[in-house]
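Why does this matter for the project? Reviewers at the last site visit asked to see concrete outputs rather than summary tables. In response, this paragraph embeds two records directly. Each consists of the residue sequence and, immediately after it, the corresponding structure tokens. Nothing has been edited or filtered.
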Amino acid sequence: MLRLYDYLPSQNAWKVRLLLNHLGLQYERVPVSIFEGESHTDAYLEKNPAGAVPVLEVEPGRFIAESNAILCYLAEGTSYLPANRFERAQVMQWLLFEQSYVEPQIGSLRYWTLTGKLAKRSDDMVAGKRAYSLRALAALERHLAARRFLVSERYTIADMAVYAYAAHADEAGLHLERYPAFRAWIGRVEAQTGFLGERFPYSIDPYASREL
């Protein structure tokens, strides 16, 4: 059985749970208390040298780290990852976009806001993250203005990955009223069969106020 090393409030981990739910795959969930240092133990670093969640153990002793790499592995041979070379490259484009412009920007602002760390960050750092976040939302709005989904008019792991943090930009203090096409896309993603609506706040973790 697949084994997922997971931290419930992480939207990177949520992406993987979402695809597993879409695919109807059974898995064992192994909680990792990241704020207590469990992702930096020697045993965990053997699974992922970067010391981050999620990690998927696909068979005993074989591990895949990085959420979008896990999505690619799980989606292989399914409708969620196109076989067509060009469409596949477009999916990769949006997976890279998500890890460059969404997760480290919108995701960081959201994380700092929800865990009470925003006031501990410099004004310049927050302003920079906010500016890049708004650029990311504007890019998504432009792209989705004439499209139902990010790639080839069908729901793929590109949509899952980008949705994870971008759809909750309001929790980062970013207002979405200016992005009607983006908001309509959020609705289409959430209407997918098997969509995983359950999310977990950082407040379930008494150690979330600590720095990583």
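We now turn to the second protein, recorded in exactly the same manner.
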Amino acid sequence: MRSADTLASSPDQFGGVIVDSDQLPADVAEFEAALAHSLQTWTSAGHRLVWLDVPLARAALIPVAAAAGFFFHHSNESDVMMVRRLVDGAFIPTHATHFIGVGGVVLNERQELLVVCERHRRTSRPYYKLPGGALQPGEHLIDAVLREVLEETGVQVKFEALVCFRHWHGYRYGKSDIYFVCRLSPLSHDVTMQAEEIEECFWMPVAEYFESDLVSAFNKRIVRAALDSPGVIPEWIDGYADPARYEFFMPP
């Protein structure tokens, strides 16, 4: 790439351009010259902003971009996304604001509830809660809760309904969190505890669960909701082509 060349890019939906990260020059001086020329070209063309995704292998380019007015938008393990306005007040959508988690209410035919006590907790005092955890990228709620229950307890379960959720702010790294509670039925009974994350795992009589001072009011309430509410169940809606990308829950 010659220093006077414009960096390869494509338009975005907000009147800006997205720089092709696969074609970024490795040489810092070459990138600095190309970026300066490109910013003039894009501004003259009426573009409103520029997105610059810098891979870890090109991390030396980050200070150059920052000096040119770019700021951090978000990052992943292998890249950081930077952005620069070319027009004052140009709209820049925020990055993801929430974590998503799931918990499973698993009640067997003996009216026993599958509970866990986490190994890594804020207090030395034990407390009991539902098995569950965070969704992985691209994972559906149903797949996540089945996976989490199996990983933590070794119990295979069947999804029945989504019964309630909690939304709160001030979770990890300043993000918010949504926790979905699902009613599940057990397909197996024997417990195989995930010792790395779980300190205890067993079937607790649900009446004992509601009376225990080692169970929070919130965890009691969501189990009560799972027992009393029909919840919402999976339903496919016509017009959406890819079930791998969408998940719908509707009243039965």
